Amino acid sequence: MTASRVLVLNSGSSSVKYRLLEMTDGSRLASGIVERIGERQSRLLHFPAGAESSDPASGGERRERVEEFADHDAALRAVAEELAADGAGPDDPRLAAIGHRVVHGGRTFTGPVLVDDSVLREIERLIPLAPLHNPANLTGIVTARALNPELPQVAVFDTTFHTTMPEYAARYAIDTATADEHRVRRYGFHGTSHAYVSRRTAELLGRDPSEVNVIVLHLGNGASASAVRAGRCVDTSMGLTPLEGLVMGTRSGDVDPAVVFHLVRVAGMSPDEVDELLNKRSGLVGLCGDNDMREIRRRVDEGDEAAALAFDIYIHRLKKYIGAYYAVLGTVDAVAFTAGVGENSAPVRRAALEGLEGLGLCVDDSRNDGPAAGPSAKEPRIVSPDGARVAVAVVPTDEELEIAQQTYALVSETDPAAGR
After folding, report:
1. Catalytic residue positions?
2. What would the pLDDT profile of 166-218 be if each residue is shown by its tens digit?
3. How far is Cα 318 from Cα 339, in angstroms, rounded to an integer?
4. Buried-most residue among 75, 131, 170, 351 (CB within 10 A)?
5. pTM for the full model?
C-alpha cells in the first residue's frame, strides 16, 4: 500500500493542532485542535474530510470531546483515537510520517530532519532560546514516537528558512565573544510561512522562485517581514526571539534596548516583569486595549483617537520595513501580504503602501477591497493595478502544508517505500 499521507502536529504549551494530508494532491483528510490541556475541561475539536475546520461555528461533520486531558500524552492519544475512527490512525500503513513544527532550531538545523535521540537532545539544548515553545514541541515529538515507534518523525523548524541570511544581517553589533558564547544572533521566525508564501508568490507571477525578489509580510497577532532574494531569505524582522521587529498584537516589536534598563532602574520592575510587559501587554493591546485589527478599524471609523494612533504606529513601522527591505533587495518583483491581518484587512494593505508610489508600490482599490471570504479568498491574487512595476499580492499562508511537504520530501528521499 502506498505511504502517501503525512500527519502534521503543532504542539503548544496547552494545545495541540493537527492536520492529516494526502500528499499526492495536498488535500486535507482531517484536522483539529486540542485546547486547554491540563485543565479539567479540555476540549478536542475534530474535523474529518469535508468538515469546515476554519469555522467551528458552522457545525458540519465535526466531532467534539470535552473532558480532562491531563497532559500532551493524553491529548495526543485522544487525537489518535479520533483519526483511527476515520480509519487513519498512527498505525495506518498509508501514513508516511509525522511532521512536527519546532519553533527554534538555532544554527544547528538548516532543514527538516528525521528525529532520533541526538535530534531530541539538541532541541532540548535549544530550550533557553525558546523557553515557551521548544518544551511543548519536544513533548509532542516524544509522545508521537511512543504511539508508533516505527513511524518516521520529522522536525521542521520555524528558523530554518532564515538560516540563509548573511552574517552581516544575522549578527548584532555586540562583542562577538559574548554573542558566540550565549548564541546571541538574529534567527527569525514564521519561516515555514515565509517559505511557502514567497514560493507561491513566484508561482502567481508565473516565474521560478530563483528569478523573483519578494518582500513577505506575515501579519497576524504575531507579525514579521522578510526580504527574499531568488528564493532565499536575506533578512527578516524577528531576531533572537519573536519580539523584535513589527508592532504586533501584544508584542512591542522594536524598542530601544535601554527601555529595559530604564524600567528596571527607574520603575523598579524585575526582568520578568519587563519581559511580560513587552511580550504580553504591548503592541496594539498596549496602545489601545485591543489586538483584533477588525475591532481597531471599527473604532478608528468611529473616531476613537487611541485606536487611530495605534493603527498609525502599526502602519508606520510596517512601512519602514517595506522601505528597508526594498533597499536591501535593490529590485523588488512583489510584495506579498499573508496571515490573518495581511490576508483580510484591505485598510492595512492600502495604508502600508500609501505614499510609496514612487517605488512602484500601490493597490487597485477594487481589487484590494475584493472578497475577504468564500473560496476566492483562499486563492492567491494580485491586488495591484495592471502594469504596476511591483506586483502586490495577497497570498494565504499554509504552514501545515509546507511542513507536510518538507516532511514528505525528506522521508521519500530516505525511504523508497514512501510515495510509491
Report:
1. 158
2. 999 999 999 999 999 999 999 999 999 999 999 999 999 999 999 999 999 99
3. 15
4. 75
5. 0.91
